[in-house]
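Reopening this one. Same input as before:
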Amino acid sequence: MELKDKLRILADSAKYDASCSSSGSNRAFKSGIGSTAIAGICHSFASDGRCISLLKILLTNSCIFDCKYCPNRRSNDIERAMLTATELCNITINFYRRNYIEGLFLSSGIIKNPDYTMERMIEAISMLRNKYHFNGYIHAKAIPGASEELLKKLGLLVDRMSANIELPTDEGLKLLAPNKDSHKVTQIMRYVKKEHSKNFAPAGQSTQMIIGATKESDYDVMLRSSSLYDNYKLKRVFYSAYIPVNKDNTLPTLIKPPLKRENRLYQADWLLRFYGFKVEDLLNNDKPNFNLLVDPKTEWALLHLEEFPKEINKCSYYELLKIPGIGTKSARRIIASRRQFKLDFSDLSRMGVVMKRAKYFITCSDRYMINPQFINRNFIETNLILDEHLKQESNNRYNQLELFHE
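Same output, byte for byte:
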């Protein structure tokens, strides 16, 4: 098979894996090519909006497993290919020299057994590092069930490792991927957490969950994510909206992937990691799913209007983070600026505060931006939903114009 055909097959087969974050590593300088310096990774975007900065490819799309949601499942009649170590190195180096990429994301179907597959991946990455002297970013997907000896070899070669949890619950995994065992995935996570250092997977580890292939609620998903962050110190949990690529009686029938739900999960994940929220602040058994019409922080604020308005010139950093429209950067700017002078609404706009959302929840020097008699859930929610609808309509018109000019 021609190398260009292998590239077409294996790059296309890798496109469903979202867990390819490319930041957080700063590999010590050596003679050679490539760099993982912060802001040294170029980003592009796929048609579905995912950020891509790496050559994302499988070593092979052949697999001994028959996971029902996977396009590369054993029972699918598709083109199969496998790269040799030399072929993978040649592709990576040539793409890098043409400035197409700044790094590599390597995963693989499982051939023969987990150890054999990991040995082939390690052979290719070791050649890239030692023969071709490539010092750029490499993210590799560890194979669940592989030995700790092989995990150690891989971790010493790459910047980030990941092992996909795949589905939010063990019940869902047994239903759709009966060959897989979540305990083997968490064993990898536990090992990477223990060994993590500037020499072993310095950019840490991540994982991915498929959303919408099974019946778990957003509450189930976020509880699992919170547990993974707490127990294994993951850098990221990636959420991948289920894309119906296979036909099976156990799979849901969807017209299109639940991308809005995926977006809400990412927003909530951000709140857990950077804004001091807990899962129970956002969801519970009585309210197990996010509102698709407004973002999770705004939904929380609407349910807790008794805590508002917040006085911008007095409230703490963590109180600022609870206000819709205020992020971590704008909160820090507010704290720093009000040491010098009292802030007004016009100052907040210049600091990056999204006033379309924040104006309902704040005062400046005890003054409201809008008439306080309108501050009730129905009024605020209606206006925020209308703003979101107009924004979406504007984006749709812009995209149509872009296509017309192309």
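So the earlier flakiness isn't reproducible anymore. For the record, The longest strand covers residues 205-211.
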